[in-house]
Amino acid sequence: MSQSKPSADERLSPSGIPVAPVYRPAEGPVPATLGEPGQFPFTRGVQPTMYRGRLWTMRQYAGFGTAQETNARFKLLLEAGQTGLSTAFDLPTQMGLDSDSPRALGEVGRVGVAIDTVEDLHLLLDGIPLDRVSTSMTINATAAVLLAMYVVVAEERGIPRAKLSGTIQNDILKEYIARGTYVFPPEPSLALIAETFRFCAAEVPSFNPISISGYHIREAGATAVQELAFTFANALAYVQRAVDAGLAVDAFAPRLSFFFACHNDLFEEVAKFRAARRMWATLMRERFGAGDASCKMRFHTQTGGVTLQAQQPLNNVVRVAVQTLAATLGGTQSLHTNGYDEALALPTAEAATLALRTQQVVAYESGVAQTVDPLAGSYYVEALTDEVERRALELLAQVEALGGSSPAIEAGFFQEEIGRSAYEYQLSVESGATVVVGVNKFGDGEAPPIIPAPDFAALEQGQRERLAAVKAARDAAAVAAALDAIRGAAPAYAQPGAARAPLMPLIIDAVKARATVGEIADVLRGVWGEYRPG
User: Fold this and answer.
1) Is pTM, for the whole model, over 0.85?
2) Residue 513: which pLDDT band, with cuts at 50, 70 and 90?
3) 236-279 pLDDT, tens digit each
4) Is the pLDDT of residue 64 over 90?
5) Residue 402 CB contacts under 8 Å (≥ 6 apart), including other chains
6) What is the spatial distance between Cα 86 and Cα 168, in angstroms, rounded to a whole number?
7) CA 357, CA 440: separation in Å to the nearest integer?
8) How far apart, in whole angstroms, are the C-alpha atoms of residue 151 and residue 79?
9) Predicted confidence band of residue 30 (pLDDT cuts 50, 70, 90)
10) Cα 423 to Cα 111: distance, rounded to the nearest angstrom
11) What 3-state class would DSSP assign to 83?
C-alpha cells in the first residue's frame, strides 16, 4: 500500500510516522495479501466472524485494599454486565512481602488488594463461580504463588483444575524494563515462568500462563512502534525458554496472551493492533515452525492510563470512548476501560460503572461489532499498518543484534529508548506542539477535584490481624515441611540447563498448608537472591 507524495504540511503520528494529507492507491485496489479473518497471518482478526460470533470480554480492573472490598466491587461490575474479572494487587503482594513485613509498612492495600494467604483469596473470590467466570491477575514476580492459590481456592470448593479459566500476567522481563516489581534475578525467574507454562499446559489447559505486556512499556513512555517491538522481543524470549526446557511449541503457545495499551490516535492504534497480529503470526511460523493455533495473537487491551488527566477529569470520558473504539476496531479479545477519575484516586463506583457502560455503548450501539475489521482497505490504515510493522521489525532486529531481551535489558537499551521517547513527548506537550485538552490548551484554571482516600492505616491494621489469625491456626510443622521442599527444588532453577523437578506442585502444597506469599518468596530469595539493576 503506497501513499501520495508528501506535501509541505505533512504531519507525524505519535510514533513519528509521516502522515500525508491524502492517501491514494498506487496500483489498483487493496491487495489480496490482506488475507481473510481467522486465517494466517490474521491481520484482519483471529476469528472468522470476530464480534458477530462473540463480543470481546469486558474485563474491568479492580483491587481495593482488602479482599472483602474488592469482592464487593467485582460483584457490582458483574451485576452491571461485566463478563470477566481482573485483579490489581498491592505492592507488597507483587513484591513477595507479607502485610506484616516492616518493608510493607504504609503500602498495604494502597494500589490493589492485599493477599497474604489463600484465605485472603477465598474472601476475594467469595460467591464468584470460578468454573464460569475467568479471572485475570496482574501479578509477575509472585505469579506462580497466586496461580497456586487460585487452584487451591477452586479445589477447596470442589472445582477441578480443568474447569478454570483466566490469566496470570507473569511477564517478568517488562518489569526489569519498565515497571519495577521484580524480585528474583532473570535466570530463575525465566525458569519459573517456563515451569508455569508446563503446569498450565498439563493441568490447567484453559488458563493463560502469561500475558506478555506492552501496556506497561507504553505507560513508561514508549511509542506504539516501541510497544510492539519490545513486547515481541520479550515474547520470543519466553517461547525460546520454554522450547529449551523441552516443551513442544504447539503444546503451550496457543495459550500465550498479550496485553497492549490503547491511546488517543485512533488510526495509529488500529494499525498497531493489525500489524501486531501479522508480526506475531509470521515470527512464530518462521522462528518456531508453529501451527496456526500458536500463531494467533490473542490480546487484552487497557485504555491508556497515562492519557488520563487530573485537570477537567470529565474529558477523560471522551478519551476513553475514543480508545475503546480504537481497540475494538483493532480486534481486541478483551478490554478494560479506565475510570475518568483515575488520575486523581482509585476509581469511584460511579466512574467504574460509567467506564463499563462506555464499552457497552460501543458494543451495542456503535455498529463496530457488525462486521469484521471494518477499516480494512482504507488507504491510510493499510499504509499505517505496513509502516508500523516495518518500523517495529526494524527495532526488534536491533534488540536481537544485542542478543535478545535479557542482554538488551542489561545493556539498558530498552530503558534508554523508552526514556528518550518519554522525554520527547513531554517536550512536545510543554511546547504546545502536542495539544492536551484542558492541560496546555482550553484550560479553565480550576484545581482538580479532591476524592476522599480510604483510611489506609486502619486497613493495614485489619489485614495484619487477619494474617496473624491464619498463622496462629495453621499447622506450623506442615508449613515448614512444605517450604523445605521448595527450598530443596529451587537451586536447579538458577542453573541454566539443569534438570529440574516440577516446582508448581510444591508451591501448591505450601499454599494448602497456609504458607504465605512472603514466606514462599523468602525461601526463593534465600536460594536465588534478589535482582539489583546495574
Assistant:
1) yes
2) very high
3) 999 999 999 999 999 999 999 999 999 999 999 999 999 999 99
4) no
5) 408, 411, 413
6) 10
7) 29
8) 25
9) low
10) 26
11) coil
| Cell numbers linked to 330 | 483493532
User: What amino acid is encoded at 209 in this protein?
Assistant: P
**Are the C-beta atoms of 96 and 521 separated by less than 8 Å?**
yes
CB 50 within 8 A of CB 373: yes
* pLDDT at res. 3: 43
Q: Which of 516, 464, 460 is nearest to 121 (CA)?
A: 516
223: which 3 cell numbers?
511509542
Which residues, in sequence order, are CB contacts of 234 under 8 Å at separation 6+? Answer: 171, 173, 174, 177, 212, 405
Query: From CA 90, how far away is CA 348, in angstroms rounded?
Result: 18
As a whole number, the mean pLDDT across the chain is: 94
298 — phi, psi (to 5°)? -95, 135
The least confident of 67-71, 183-187, 417-421 is 67-71
Q: Before 533, cis peptide (omega within 30)?
A: no
The CA distance from 241 to 243, in Å, is 6
Checking phi first, is residue 16 left (phi over 0); if not, alpha (psi -120 to 50) or beta?
Answer: left
Q: How many other CB atoms are there within 10 angstroms of residue 102's CB atom?
A: 6
- Residue 31: pLDDT band with limits 50, 70, 90: low
Beta bridge partners of 61: 86
State the residue for C-alpha cell 510444591. Answer: 506
Distance between CA atoms of residues 165 and 278, nearest Å: 26
Distance between CA atoms of residues 357 and 360, nearest Å: 5
The single-letter code of the amino acid at 160 is P
Residue with cell 486497613: 459
Task: For 311-336, write each residue's pLDDT tens digit.
Answer: 999 999 999 999 999 999 999 999 99
Report the SS3 class of residue 261: strand
User: What is the 3 state secondary structure string of 404-445?
Assistant: CHHHHHHCCHHHHHHHHHHHHHHHHHHHCCCCCECCCECCCC
Cell representation of residue 262: 490503547
How many C-beta neighbours within 10 Å does residue 63 have?
A: 26
Summarize pLDDT for 332-384 with one digit per residue, the tens. Answer: 999 999 999 999 988 888 999 999 999 999 999 999 999 999 999 999 999 99
Q: Which residue has the cell 490516535?
A: 265
* Contacts with 140 (C-beta within 8 Å, 6 or more apart), sequence order: 94, 169, 170, 171, 172, 175, 179, 181, 182
pLDDT of residue 26: 67
Whole-Å CA distances, 285 to 150, 236, 280, 294, 341: 33, 12, 9, 8, 43
Task: State how far the Cα of 437 lies from the Cα of 443, in Å rounded to an integer.
Answer: 7
The pairing of strands 18-19 and 11-12 is: antiparallel
Query: Which residue matches cell numbers 461489532?
Result: 369
Burial of 274 (0-12, 13-18, 19+ CB in 10 A): buried
